Amino acid sequence: MSYEVLARKWRPKSFSELIGQDGAVQALSNALDKNRLHHAYLFNGTRGVGKTTLARILAKSLNCEVSISSKPCQKCATCKDINNGRFIDLVEVDAASNTQVDNMRELLENAQYAPTSGRFKVYIIDEVHMLSKSAFNAMLKTLEEPPSHVKFILATTDPKKVPVTVISRCLQFNLKQMTSDSISKHLKNILKEEKINYDDESMKIIAKAAHGSMRDALSILDQAIAYSDDKISTKKIVSMLGTIDNTFISSILNALSENNADKVMELSKEMNDKNISFELALEEFARLIHRIATYQIISNSSEQPEENEEIKKLSSLFSPETLQLIYQIAINGRKDLHLAPDSITGFNMTLLRMLAFYPSTQINEEIKPKKKIDSQKNKLNNQNEIKSFIKDNKKQFDGDWIKLVRDLKIGLAKSLAQECSLKSYENDIFNLTLNENFQHLAENGYIKKLEEELINYFNKKIKINITIGSNLKTPSSQKKLENTKLMKKTESAIMEDKFVKKLIDDFGAEVITSSIEPTKKEDD
Ligand SMILES: [Zn+2]
Fold first, then answer.
1. Which end of the chain has fewer CB within 10 Å, C or N?
2. Distance between CA atoms of 37 and 119, rounded to whole angstroms?
3. How far is CA 322 from CA 257, 359, 361, in A?
4. What is the CB neighbour count within 10 angstroms for residue 263?
5. C-alpha to C-alpha distance for 310 and 172, rounded to whole angstroms
6. Co-location of 418 and 297 in the same domain
7. Which CATH number does the domain housing residue 25 bear?
8. Domain tally for the chain?
9. Ligand 1 centroid to residue 13 C-alpha, Å
């Protein structure tokens, strides 16, 4: 006996067998059971969600010889003929290949005649948005004054392209994309009936790969059955689809959390050896990060318990901010993948970027990741730089206090630092002298803030000792000196200017020195 593809063999024959379209099914069932019938229906939804299947069940419900009902008998000649695709009063048209007005006219002329054997003549027009404008116009006339024995069921993946005049004459249903969960549940039921062994994870992978389309899921399952001998296993599906199981991705995340560049690269090489699609890997990456981030917020996750353990563990390794960052890098990496010399290079660069941006200190430690390092990391753009950066991301103090203070964020810490000069620095202790005119800054809150700033800056424990002194070379006095110098220079430049000189000489003009401002502005 020849193999019948699953999509055909397992096509739902009744509303109750239809997966994932409860809303539409409920509304249609009510209408049928209460005999509140419309003459035109429009089903929209992405491919493979069951539009034509639903249309055929509706056609059967309307024509079942027993009665019009949401539960057609499946036994009468009409039900059987519809199930077998040979009912004379059910006309299925693929608008994509019959776009012309002539085809539509012919179809509609035919609609005027009474049905041959059924109660209604039912026209299912699939991909209706593909019809030409004149074909739509021809159809509109019939939709406006339809013969009572005619029902139209229009289906489209692109309702925006269907004229409003047509839409407004139809009862419209939006069919939902199927969730991975409902797809994988359905696949499992089929395999149980077909007596084929499988493991749970393999069904999850197929369901995910189908992107909400049951038809695609079933055709992947057909391939999987042909590809496997005794059992459909995760390993086989992974190699068949060139997809990945999450072990790789979570191993990479674990290695990232340890800042282990070697391990990350090793995993990437292993994936390459296994011919895993890096595009899918980055997609999976983003999906997993989303799950971890969601778990951090909602502890009552609906995930499977065994996944929960992994997610739970990973969620303790990353701060929410870092997850956001890694997610963004994964998404961008995927977007740029086709621009990379080859996909493993693109993938590796994405991972290295994650490593470069991964804060050297993470949550649950007293020191929080800091922006200074990140902005510096931004500038790194090749592998070696990144690698050496990762090994050596602790800054050393080079003895230039004034330059260091310039780098600090504006705030209490900076106000204090600006009025201090450096007496000495050793063993991570800054011995500072504070200008006596600013003694009020020597209070503990200010000192603590400055310490924190420096800890963040150098990424290590720092201590500050402060004594009071006078005549100091502080960042603030240094700045004043520079400003004065700059001012003098500007003034003399103006006085030397030929045009200004001429104004003074010829017209007795006077330069108001207080109005002079250097054009070069210092930051602070
Ligand atoms: Zn029947």
1. N
2. 13
3. 10, 8, 11
4. 15
5. 43
6. no
7. 3.40.50.300
8. 5
9. 11
Q: Are strands 420-426 and 90-94 parallel, antiparallel or unpaired?
A: unpaired
Same-domain check for residues 413 and 451: yes
Q: Determine the structural domain holding residue 436 and report its residue range.
A: 401-473
Q: Which amino acid is at 92?
A: E
pLDDT at 80: 96
User: Is residue 122 packed enough to be buried (19+ CB in 10 Å), middle (13-18) or exposed (0-12)?
Assistant: buried
For the chain, the distance separating the N- and C-terminal CA atoms, rounded to the nearest angstrom, is: 85
The residue written with tokens 């027993």 in the block is 66
For residue 153, the CA-to-ligand 1 centroid distance in Å is 19
Cα 320 from Cα 325, distance rounded (Å): 9
Q: Rounded to an integer, what distance in angstroms lies between the CA atom of residue 36 and that of residue 30? A: 8
The two three-digit tokens of residue 475, written as one number: 């960042």
- Asked if 287 and 295 count as a contact pair (C-beta separation under 8 A), the reply is no
Q: Measured in angstroms, how far is the CA atom of residue 65 from the centroid of ligand 1?
A: 5
**152 phi/psi in degrees, rounded to 5:** -105, 135
Residue at 374: amino acid letter: D
Tell me the CA–centroid distance for residue 467 and ligand 1, in Å.
Answer: 98
pLDDT of residue 519: 61
My answer on whether 39 and 139 are in the same domain is yes
Name the pTM for this structure. Answer: 0.55
10-residue stretch averages of pLDDT, the chain, 524 residues long: 81 92 94 93 92 96 96 96 94 83 83 92 94 88 90 94 93 91 93 93 89 90 88 86 76 90 92 84 89 77 55 85 90 92 93 81 38 42 44 73 84 85 89 88 81 81 86 87 85 79 77 66 44
Is there a domain that residue 367 lies in? yes
Ligand 1 centroid vs 75 CA: distance in angstroms? 5
Q: Which residue blocks in 258-400 are alpha helix, DSSP H?
A: 261-273, 278-297, 305-317, 320-336, 343-357, 371-378, 383-391
Q: Please check whether residue 323 lies inside any domain of the structure.
A: yes
pLDDT on residue 2: 67
Nearby residues of 317 by Cβ (< 8 Å), 6 or more positions away: 253, 254, 257, 362
CA distances from residue 193 to 6, 10, 189, 197 in whole angstroms, order as listed = 12, 10, 6, 10
Task: Give me ligand 1 centre to Cα 90, in Å.
Answer: 14
